[in-house]
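URGENT: need a sanity check before tomorrow's submission.

F., can you look over the Glycosyltransferase record below? I want to be sure the sequence and structure line up before it goes out.
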Amino acid sequence: MSTLRSRTAEPVAQIVTLAKEPVPGRVKTRLTPPFSPAQAAALAEAALADSLRAVSAAPATQRVLALDGLPGLWLPGGHVVIPQRGDGLDERLAAAFTDAHRLRPDPVVLIGMDTPQVTAELLAEACEALGRHDAVYGPAADGGFWLLGLRRPDPALLLGVPMSRPETGEHQLERLARARLAVHHLPELADVDTAADAAAVAALAPRTRFAATLRELTR
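Structure tokens as predicted:
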């Protein structure tokens, strides 16, 4: 048994990954230019694969992929696939929490597909923290968040929070504070949105599939 898996004999939380099928023209559009839509999709697929690999290595009671689109060869085994619901990102996040919790009534840790540098250790910390805290929050460098964990998922904690803005994280933390939730904070990570972001994240995590794909596309 690995050191990571032996750290927690009985996982306390499930992990949900919110993602889009990496189809050219539908993902990572801010990477074009300088990358073509096909290249941007290749980077998105690599980032998603890295994220799912970390999820697979972290202790969890269940692993869920809340997917907009269809699964592909990039999906490892051991994941339950559910469709995304809702229009705005706040609705889709709230629905992913609700639907995963309906499948299995455990605390929920949710991440996206924009942080290929995420590690199983960070995810394990988030899951374990929900045994002692009401929520877990991972801030993103752009002002949003890369991870949100809730011991008792409630759509009211997300619906109406303005998403994809520099102040998104501030609003989300205010929502958690108004609910008087005890929050465990994780380190800040950078999302991959632009070509500059991609280069910076690849430099921080050179052994990821994402970094290898970027090197192949830019050599």
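My own read: The mean pLDDT is 96. The two ends are 39 Å apart (CA to CA). If you see anything odd, call me.
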